[in-house]
Amino acid sequence: MTEDVKRALSVIAQVKKAVMGKDACIIKTMTAILAGGHVLIEDIPGVGKTTLALAFSKAMGLEQNRMQFTPDVLPADITGFSIYKKETNSFVYQPGAVMCNLFLADEINRTSPKTQSALLEVMEEGKVTVDGVQQEIPRPFIVIATQNPVGSAGTQMLPESQIDRFMICISMGYPSMKDEIEIAKGNTSGTPIEDVKTVISREDLLHLQEEAGKIFIHDEVYEYIGKLIQATREDPLIALGISPRGTIALTKMAKAYAFLHKREYVIPEDVSYVFPDIAVHRICMNSKARINHVTEEKIIGQILDRVRRPSVRRGY
């Protein structure tokens, strides 16, 4: 297990060369990748969202495709389409942008809902259906999507069904003054991505994902997960709580986070650490919460304070 964790940590070290001062975001993204999930990064343009995704694809030797989601992007651009070949009197599938290991969906909330929905099947099942024929997506398959804050020019909210398929939602934010200076110095002699080296292969990543999935969870920790999820459904300020898909995401994230910390078991602190990132985009506040300016982050913090952590011993 130690060697496997070293491989995962080496990916994080490489990504840090390109993305400075955002260690927490890098670790959370790596955790989601190990958990086999997709990542939604919401922030203003220019803070390094795209650089983060490109650095991960290079460090892990993944085939990546990038698509800028503009209003004129069509579903067929994403899933692919069939074209008639006169020579063979048959239709031949032409691969779309998702036929890769890491699909970077840039500014996903700037395109039409119809185009956004083209990602639903592929994100959940790892395959696309074109003209009634299913096409398998290469494994591993990861979607890292960026979106501008709602209200920015040309944006529209993602539907709940789409949002729910992202394992986590994170925000990078502005760098500190010290990191800003380092970024300025580093970009005078070339792009940061050039410094990133490939340290694992696609096969290595599949193996790491499999090992992370084997991490043990005690029944009391499972109960803690259930109570956190249930609290989002019963809170008087939340109109829509976390779905069962969110429960699975929380479980997988906790396992992957424990794996990164060289543990063969999950502790309650693993669950509470990753809970905000799997919850913030899944809960919908009601009108009472909006009137009182209660944010999703605040209500998640209250739930974590309210739900008692189990006193499971380390090393159980």
What does it look like?
The protein is an alpha/beta fold and 316 residues long. It folds into two domains: 2-186, P-loop containing nucleotide triphosphate hydrolases (Rossmann fold, 3-Layer(aba) Sandwich); 213-306, Helicase, Ruva Protein, domain 3 (Orthogonal Bundle). 45% of the residues lie in helices and 15% in strands. It has helices spanning 2-18, 23-34, 49-59, 75-79, 113-116, 120-125, 160-163, 177-186, 202-212, 219-234, 244-260, 268-279, 287-291, 296-306; strands at residues 39-42, 64-68, 80-85, 90-95, 102-106, 127-130, 133-136, 142-147, 168-170, 238-240, 284-285. The strands form four sheets. The protein has a five-stranded parallel sheet with strand order 2-5-8-1-9. A two-stranded antiparallel sheet has the order 3-4. β6 (127-130) and β7 (133-136) form a beta hairpin. α10 packs across α11 (244-260) and α12 (268-279) runs antiparallel to α14. The mean pLDDT is 88.
SSE run: HHEHEHEEEHHEEEHEHHHEHHEHH
Strand order within the widest beta sheet: 2-5-8-1-9
Top-tier CATH class of the largest domain: Alpha Beta
CATH structural architecture of the largest domain: 3-Layer(aba) Sandwich
Mean pLDDT: 88
Strand content: 15-25%
Pfam family, one: AAA_lid_2
GO molecular function: ATP binding; ATP hydrolysis activity
Domain ATPase AAA-3: 38-168
Protein name: MoxR-like ATPase
